[in-house]
Amino acid sequence: MHERRIAEQSTPFWWKLAPVTPLPQQPLAKKLDVLIVGAGYAGLSAGLALARAGRSVAAFDAMSPGEGASSRNGGITSGSIRPDYATLSHRFGEQKAMAIEAEGKLARAFLYDFIETERLDCDFQLTGLFKGAIGYEQYDTMARGAEALAKRLGIESYAVPHAEQRNYIGTDFYRGGTVRRDIGGLNPAKFHAELLRVALASGLTVHSNTLVTSIARDGPGFRVVTSAGTVQARQVLVCTNGYTDGASPYLRRRLVPVRSRIIATEELAPDVMARLMPKLMMMGEGLQLGFYYRPSPDGRRILLGGRDSSRLGDPAAPTLRLRKGLVKRFPELENVRLSHSWFGNVAMNRDMLPRIFEKNGVLFATGFCGSGVVWAPWIGMRAAHRLMGESTHARSAFDFRPPAFIPFYRGNPWFMPAVIQGYALQDRIAMWRAKR
């Protein structure tokens, strides 16, 4: 294996500017108004709202806060929903489908306003997103979708024909694409660090490296056992996602952790970046296992991510797959070095929608399906307002029945390699139909 194909570091690129560290040990309160499981985006957002409303609230994280997906993701504020509008309408009815789409617009606006109002230093830039079409037939479908999105929700969204593609991205790999102007990028680790800062300042207590082992009804409240001791809580909110463990067996049977991997290039020359990413947009593509990619916030590197079918350790093959995909889209990067390659878990469920739901008195805010930068803060805040009985601020199209359980599944995603291979086959068929 040629040395240049191995990334120099296996930690997230984002940790250079916002390293994830454990918090100092905090005294354990014996009684709380609200106990939150998880101190990622959702848990901290909920804790911030609850603490500012005067509740005694603490969040417990099995790792250092932010060590999971909150500091490992691509930092793209897509808020995408996996099922398209037609699928949502078929499953849930047109009214529900419209409400789900409309809430995406609200959630992104909320995030951008939150960053500005709280003065969060997280390198946020509203760049827009270009999504590439694999073939001309797919381009026609995507173009109609962009037009419909603009008409339904007033989002600036439009088609980019193949002849104009290089104004947005320096590749001939696609056959045109679409642009959405309401999507941008940020440094996810800095965003989490800033969210943690304001949450702690509001009065939220955060216990890092403190495992929640059980949650049980105890009279009108709950008895929560942690690795640091037992706590009585009037209400419990579970905000775990791709790192859900045995503390909530019910949730664990409904969320599948899926590895997602990202690579980062070495610094590229300014003229190379200007050719390949002339508008410094976020990027996606129309494949089941398509890559998402973007410039680094300083505009000097390209970061590219995608699904990782491995389950144990840190093998080289997924990094090489992503590197091959990078070079296929940008052939002039054939000899580029990789500075970083890392992975983290996203959580998928059977209908691929985020969710707020209640089970046996415990409230859950979870299931972000790879779009947690937008959905986790929004869903966490909605859940907090529901706990406080504020129906207007708690209203969400994602507050409905729990995700369906997955038969023969208890937390070990043994079937994921086969699922990934199935998606890969669909992509090969799509490429063949597009005469690629």
UniProtKB/TrEMBL annotation:
Keywords: Oxidoreductase. GO terms for molecular function: oxidoreductase activity. SUPFAM superfamilies: FAD/NAD(P)-binding domain. Its EC number is 1.-.-.-. Pfam families: DAO (PF01266). InterPro entries: FAD-dep_OxRdtase (IPR006076), FAD/NAD-bd_sf (IPR036188). Residues 33-385 form the FAD dependent oxidoreductase domain. This is FAD-binding oxidoreductase. It comes from Halomonas kalidii.
